[in-house]
């Protein structure tokens, strides 16, 4: 068989030839991954036991493998272990949460959260060994000025999902905490105006007496449509 002619490129390309798995082995790995991730839960009751810095590094390395629009990788992860800074983050988050739970114009939003039994108390932000905040980069500054980033929400969302997957794989737990607004994180963590807070992740091991709401996940028939 004649080899295909090389494709013309204006920029560098390299071969990509991952091993092709037998179908049965691919399905086995897929089932194993599903069962592993199906055991993941968001946690609000954490242990204060230490988590090695290397675990955070590995989780962010994993996030960095995410696809992103135009390969701009528009994210920054800020890891916080300092107790004083964690406490200041807690106080600021609780102030925003008290305002949110005190609003009378969003009863449906409050109702949607009621079965999770959440409130303005964010004690876990003092307990966890790490707080990791994902920031979305709206643009970056180069020698020629601002370079706009594209598909920022999509890109950062995928990276955060892979970050969560890595944490779960290492036996760690987290929560996608999004106090609204989150501008206080930009100030406390000294981030530039080109970035905006995206998700606050408390990271640690579940407490020995950890509990989670009894929930069921959407069945496949509701998540998948064949055409």
Automatic annotation (TrEMBL):
Any one GO molecular function term: oxidoreductase activity
Q: Where is this region: Disordered?
A: 1-22
Per its UniProt record, what InterPro entries does this chain match?
Nitroreductase, Nitroreductase-like, Nitroreductase/BluB
Q: Which residues cross the membrane?
A: none
Instruction: Indicate whether Flavoprotein appears among the record's keywords.
Output: yes
Give the Nitroreductase domain ranges.
Answer: 38-205
Report keywords, A-Z. Flavoprotein, FMN, Oxidoreductase
According to UniProt, the name of this protein is Nitroreductase
What organism is the protein native to? Saccharopolyspora kobensis
